[in-house]
Amino acid sequence: MPEPILTVAGVSKTYKDGPTALKTVDLSVNRGEIVALLGPNGAGKTTLISIICGIVTPSSGSVTVAGHDVVRDYKAARRAIGLVPQELATDQFESVLATVTFSRRLFGRSGHSDYIEQVLRDLSLWEKRHAKIKDLSGGMKRRVLIAKALAHEPEILFLDEPTAGVDVALRRDMWKLVHRLREQGATIILTTHYIEEAEEMADRVGVISRGELLLVEEKDALMAKLGKRQMDLTLVEPLAAVPAALARWSPTLEHDGRTLRYVFDAKAESTGIPELLAAVAEQHIAFKDLETRKSSLEDIFVDLVGQRA
Questions:
Q1: Total structural domains in the chain?
Q2: What's the CA gap between 265 and 258, in Å, rounded?
């Protein structure tokens, strides 16, 4: 059986005289997994991470990290956690090396130069080790935050919107780093509102909306269970409206009437495609191309959140 490194049981958060930021959440994460918590801004992702990391006190429930309760055994639990926050909060006048070494010593670790050097090299920061934080680019500062989080050799790494505000090239570098960390045995939980980030990196995906964890599924299983397929007919002549004779299939017109789109369940006994194509022919609607594709994680996410709106 896989070994859970994180257990969240019945956790919620309601602020005094304020809104419910997080409804009752249950979550279990196994050692070595990458789990992406996907949701729009304000969905409750950061609140959940903050509770797990002991920064915010839950209104109900309990959290166990590496066998330690985050409230009763805070120090041991926190030692097992590396947190990369959204905000770039560092001493701007310290050097990269000093900042990362200080973070390591905060957790009672010796100033292990070989380990710190490896972390900085992995993050392409070694050549910048003597540079002051204030002189770094935004992307380099983001790398420093990750180095600080890794400095004390945590068992589980939390990345809160790790690539927010960074360019596409740096985002892809971050993805490579996360995969490399997992290969070295780290467990990683990231929050993101970038669909492609969850699709690229995660083993499992959790969807959060309005403080509620709607589901947590293996990425491939989620897409197989909820994903639809889509057939696009590229028309020879554009249509102003969907003919009444095609209404039973509920197709839509896209691209200024030049594409007739039909969404269907590929696992259904009947997809309806042969009948639809026959009806299209009967209506003398000519098309020059036919293309089908699977739904993306983005399509699934929009559907899920839309159902709860």
A1: 2
A2: 23
